Structures are given as structure tokens and as C-alpha cells.
Amino acid sequence: MTESQADIVDENAGDDHANDEQIEDHQEHIHVVPGWLLLTVFAVLLFLTFVTVAVTWIDFGRTGNVWIALTIASIKAALVALYFMHLRWDSPFNSVILIAAMFFVALLIGIIVLDTSEYNINFSAPPPTSARPTQ
Amino acid sequence: MSDLLSKQQAAVAKAGDTSAPERDHHHHPHGNVHLAHHFETPEQQFNSAKIGMWVFLATELLMFGGLFCAYAVYRHNHPEVFEFGHTFLNKNLGAINTIFLISSSLTMAWGVRAAQLGARRTLVACLTLTLIGGAAFMVIKTIEYSHKYHENVWFGSGNKFSKIYKPGVVVGPGGGHGSSERPHVLTETEREHAAEVHEQATTTQPTAVIGDPWVDPNAGTGDEAKIKPTQIVPVGLAPRRATPGRHDIKFEDLPQLEKERVATFFNIYFLMTGLHGVHVLVGMALIYWILVRATSPHLHGVIIGIAPLAVAAYLFWLGSLTHGHLTIPGWRTFENGMWWLSSVVALIGVALIVRGVVRARTARRGRGEFGPRYYTPVDLVGLYWHLVDLIWIFLFPLLYLIH
User: Fold this and answer.
1) Binary contact (B119, A17; C-beta < 8 A)
2) ipTM of the predicted structure?
3) Best mutation target, A53, A59, A98, to test chain B (most B CBs within 10 A)
4) What tens digit of pLDDT does each residue of B278-310 get?
């Protein structure tokens, strides 16, 4: 069996091929993501990319489209994090780090947007002019 | 004795000679040359490395979070500016780039899988494909940026909507991508007049706008808003129309005071995509490093020489994009400068390849470093690459798909 054929070997049969001399007893904790799962996630990501473009053809109002786009992006991000980044099978501590970071970003954006709404008038006022127009 | 042996292995590993000891000593209790002495097991070492990488990725998210925050505040306050500004971005190119990044994420994940299974050729193929995906992304990004440059919607003073605009590009005959003239924004008098109207409208609100349902649907009632909307002079804004038009917001449709803010959309666009692009470049460099390590030692020299050739090709192409219209002040044209630079870089690449070929004859042949026993760098670089993909997944709809 050649190395390139190793792809079709699933994780249980992984010991069969030419490099099995490398695999030792303490390596059994390795979790190999099944190939079909990676391909499925990839297909779903492509489909969601199409959906997020297609959804702009429909008008859901000024904020509607933003929230739909953000929801789709979040689903895609979750898929990438869980399967491509292996979080689903990792120690939960890694997920905690990611979720904490996202939580603090959400907190930052949320509170600042709330605050900027309060001062909308000042925010949008033009800078003071030194001279009045002579009309 | 066993300690001595471990030290010898470590020294050999440092010299880049790694595959032989892997084969020779794997029955040794500490046979894994990659296991540092302060870790109990390779598993513990791997998990520690992974947690460290995740902490770093968290800081990356926080850094981009600041930019997303700037984006959110500005879009929240000036939605029309974004609806107008995003019409300058090419949705198709953005979508193609998304597909490139997602595909390269797949090949990276597949590469990690190949390393875990010990399929070294598949690993090399996957890393190469991932690199190609990243390069394709950067090429499309460059095309987009050069369009912006030629259309004078660059950042800073290169943006025709900016108050500090200085026409930098002289568009040659036949090469006109767009007008280089600054659109009529506001003269000084108009600007002050607009400020006055704005001030009056915001200070004398109750009498001035009672009964105008657009400004306040509850005007004059107990539910009247305490804080008034800022744009008192709505000129053809989407929400006002019975059937909101899409993709058709014109510069003239923007409220006077918003016209001056269009340049900020481009600054945000360039800052966010630019920082992301830097991350793509860093990711590509890391993948390249992994790719070299994943191959036989005798091929390292040649493979390292390919990188300067690719960089030279890119620089040459970058120069040709300007068609000689861009001049480096006091020196020569940008195109000419890039020609010289790419020539030098290409010569370095050729020299490295020749050196690699000469040394390949005598160099030791062996396997790449990564296999089921040791694939930490592949995994961690993969995590970084997926994060780059993840950020783009948000950037694409937020910048390209506004309405």
C-alpha cells in the first residue's frame, strides 16, 4: 500500500499502511476527522456561501438583511470551528477560550453601539464653523 | 545512559536531521525526539501547545474585534454611507475569494488528517493546494485593490470622496476606469449653510417637524421620541419610498452631511481587508514553512528557492498593473521599480534553486518530519489558517453584501 492510498484508510484501519511503524501505543489518543465529514462540512460551507449571496437578492429591510447575513456567517464560523478546527473533539477548555473571546468582542460592540445611539445628535453634528456664511 | 541518548537525539533533531532518529529510537522510553523534557507525555505537550495557540487566536479575535466595533458604530450611525460605498465593491470577486478560502481551509484540514495518518505525500499535496488557494485569494485581492486605486477610491488622500483628496493617478487615454475628479461634495458656504440648517432642525425640533411621520411617527403625542433622528433633511432615502429601490443609491441621493463620510467607508474597508490580507500572507508563509519540513531533507534547498520566484512573479505583475502611471516621487515609475525589484528577487530564487540542486545530490534523503507521532506544527498552523478563513466569513457579507 502506498502512502497516497492512505487517504482511503479510515482511522481504525490506519495501522495497516506503510508508516505504521510510526504509530505507537501512546498515539492512540489521536482523533482523526473522517474524510466524508470534512467533505460534508465543505459542501455545507459552499452552500451557505451561495445562500448568503442569494439572500441579498431579496429585500428584508435595512436591518433584516444584516441579521440574516450575520446569522449565516455565524453558522459557517461554527462549522469551521467545530470540524475544521477540531473543537468538537478537543478539550472543552479550548472552546471556552474561543467563546470567551467572542463574548468580549460582542460585549465591546454591543455596549459601544448602545452608547453611540445615545449621542447620535452630537455624533452627527458638523464641526463648528468659525465664520458664518455671508448671504 | 538513556539521558545521554536523549540529549544526542535532541542535538541531532536541532541540526535538522529528524527522520533517522525517529526510525532508530522509537523503542526508547523517550523515543520521541520532539518531546521536551518538561512534559510527561507527547499528548500533554500537544495539548499544551494547542491551548497556547488558542489563546493566541483569542487575542487575534480581540484585535479584529476592535475593527468590527468601528465598523458597527459607523454603519449604525451612517447606514446610507455603507449602502452607497459598497456599490464600489465587486460581489463576484468577493464570493470567488470566499470559495478560495473555504477550499483552502478544507485542504488544510485534510492535510492535518494526512499527517495524523502518516500519509506524507497527501500532506505535501494538501499543503501545496492550500498555498495555491491563499495565493489565488491574494491575486484577486490585488485585482480588487488596483481597481479601487484606478477609480480613485483608495484610502486616505487617494479617495476622491475625501476632503483631503489629491489626485494621485493620472489615468491615461483609453485606460479610464472612472473619473479622477473629486465629486461635488460641499463648498465652504454650502457646508456652513448645511450646518446651520442642521442646527436649526435639531434645536427647534418640536415646532419644525410636528406632523412629519418620517422624523417621528409619534410627534406631538406622549410617545414622542426624546432623541430625534439626526438626518432632518431626508433626500430620497430608501425607507421613505413605498418600494425601496435596491443597488441604486446614488451619490446625489445621500444627505448632504453624509456625502463627506463616504471616504470613511473606504478607510474601514481597506483597514479591515488589509489587516486580513496581512494575515493571509503570514498564514501562507507558515504553511510554506510546514511544507518544507514535510518534505525530504534533500529537497529543502530547491523548495526554498521556489518562494522567491513566486514573490518575484507577483511583484512583476503588481508593477505591470499600474501601466507606468504611478511614479515613486523623485525616482522612477512604480512599474520600473517593481521590474528591478522582481529581477533581483528572481535572481535570488534561481541562485537558491541552483544551490539546492547541487546539494541535493549529496544531501541525505529521508522522510518529512511529520507523522502520527508528531504533527503539532501542522495542526497549529492549520488552526491559524482556519481563523483567517473564519474572519473572512464575516468580512465578506459585512462589506460586500450590504443590501
Assistant:
1) yes
2) 0.75
3) A53
4) 999 999 999 999 999 999 999 999 999 999 999
Give, in order, the Cα–Cα distances in Å from A120 to each of A107, A108, B158, B215. 20, 18, 29, 14
Compute the residue count for chain B. Answer: 403
At A109, the amino acid letter reads I
Which residues of A are less than 8 Å from B257 in CB distance? Answer: 124, 126
Q: Establish how many alpha carbons lie within 13 A of residue A116's alpha carbon, considering only the half-sphere containing its beta carbon.
A: 18
End-to-end CA distance of chain A: 89
Residues 6+ positions from B107 with CB-CB distance below 8 Å: B126, B127, B129, B130, B133
Could you tell me which chain B residue has the CA closest to the CA of A63? Answer: B403
Q: Tens of pLDDT along B319-349?
A: 998 887 777 777 788 889 999 999 999 999 9
Instruction: List, for residues B92-151, the tens digit of each pLDDT value.
Output: 999 999 999 999 999 999 999 999 999 999 999 999 999 999 999 999 999 999 999 888
Which amino acid belongs to residue B398? L
- Take residue A76 and report the three cell numbers written for it: 459557517
| Between B222 and B390, residue with greater pLDDT | B390
Q: Do A49 and B26 touch (CB under 8 A)?
A: no
Residues from chain A contacting residue B196 (CB–CB below 8 Å): 132-133
Residue with cell 506544527: B377
CB–CB contact B195 A129 (8 Å): yes
Q: A21 in contact with B at a CB cutoff of 8 Å?
A: yes
Residue numbers in B near A28 (CB within 8 A): none
What is the reported pTM? 0.76
Rg (CA), chain A: 25
Please list every residue in chain A whose beta carbon sits closer than 8 Å to the beta carbon of residue B189: 133, 135
Residue B139 contacts residue B321 (beta carbons within 8 Å): no
Nearest to B77 among A39, A100, A116 (CB): A116
Of the candidates B97, B98, B121, the residue with the CA atom closest to the CA atom of residue B110: B121
Contacts of B217 by beta carbon, 8 Å cutoff, 6+ apart: none
Largest pairwise CA distance in chain B:
94
